[in-house]
Amino acid sequence: MKTIVEKIYQGQQKDERDEIIKRAGEIIKNGGLVAFPTETVYGLGADALNEEAAKKIYAAKGRPSDNPLIVHIADMGAIAGITETIPKKAGIVADAFWPGPLTMIFRKNARVPDGTTGGLDTVAVRMPDHAAARELIHAGGGYVAAPSANTSGRPSPTDACHVEADMEGKIDMIIDSGSVDIGVESTILDMTVEPPMILRPGAVTREMLEALIGRVAVDGTLISDTSTEAPKAPGMKYRHYAPKAKLTVVAGEISAVVEEIRRLCRERMKEGRKVGIIATEETVMKYTQGNVKCIGTREDESTIASHLYGILREFDSDEVDCIYSEAFEADGIGSAVMNRLMKAAGQHVIEVK
Ligand code: TXA
Ligand code: MG
Prior knowledge:
This protein has helices at residues 14-29, 51-61, 88-97, 114-117, 131-139, 160-167, 206-213, 220-223, 254-270, 301-318, 334-344; strands at residues 4-7, 34-36, 43-47, 70-72, 102-107, 122-126, 144-145, 173-176, 187-190, 197-200, 217-218, 246-252, 275-279, 291-294, 322-326, 349-352. It is globular, with a radius of gyration of 20 Å. α1 packs across α5 (131-139). By secondary structure, it is of the alpha/beta class. The longest helix has 18 residues, at 301-318. The strands form two sheets. It has an eleven-stranded mixed β-sheet with strand order 1-8-2-3-7-4-6-5-9-10-11, with helices on both faces. It has eleven helices and 16 strands. The structure holds threonylcarbamoyladenylate and magnesium ion (MG). Magnesium ion (MG) is lined by residues 147-148, 156.
């Protein structure tokens, strides 16, 4: 299959943009696959109400079929078309955070095929905060199932070039609008339980939700990696976001962390290994050996979120043998960053004093 790549950009002629969106919408309506930008990561879209189309997503990604897809909508009215009842709290949360980096889980109605929800009787719904994404959802019939547009097990794509690397020849079209804004996937909030429960941390934090609707629980498997329970979002059980090299997170007081990473780097290099280091603006000058990448500043952790997946992919192309990353503060969007980083590391962390 030849994958068409079309660019959408600021200042583009409106009719040119409309024409791209129209063609992409036709592909989706005809059961094909279109990768598109959102504010979090690129999604791989198909008609959510067409079981055969949803199945193609699993094939293109190499994704286990028990891992359900998020249905993307473009207006509030669309929720009622695919769900049973919408709890009052969900309306409050939607008013505050949609469009935005938040997915809510509801009881599904019969219109949503099992192929989209991995056989579950619930459906995950999100309204993305990206104009081209919402235009495409409209053009594609209103309900677009979209996981992150990466090969299963690889870091989520935060730029169209990542999508091309993984999906070239496997999907019909890629809409390229450059790098995304946030860089980690949406917060998932299960509205079918009371209190509502966070199944995946993202840019919309527990504190932000609690300020609106009172107590919000967090899936225990996200807090403790020693939990023997399965995570409630099926996708969270897979070792996602994995770079090819072994990644180790080093946590503790920052100057001790830098010392330990420098020591580990020297040791590995003596053994003839290629070492990658994930540093911050505050520490990058302190590393004098290894393949050092600056992920962003500790002053603003959203800069770290937006570079995380891109840096993991760069280390794959650089073919390093091992990667050491500094740990980051786990508050605000930092909780999403640390969740993804620890998963990429297979929970492997060294604590220093
Ligand atoms: O930011 C995002 O959410 C991106 C963009 C493209 O919108 N999408 C995304 O999709 O991250 P994906 O498929 O990579 O992750 C969806 C997660 C998986 O962990 C899946 O198991 C969970 O959502 N999920 C989907 N439907 C669910 C349901 N009904 N119940 C529990 N978990 C569900
Ligand atoms: Mg994903």
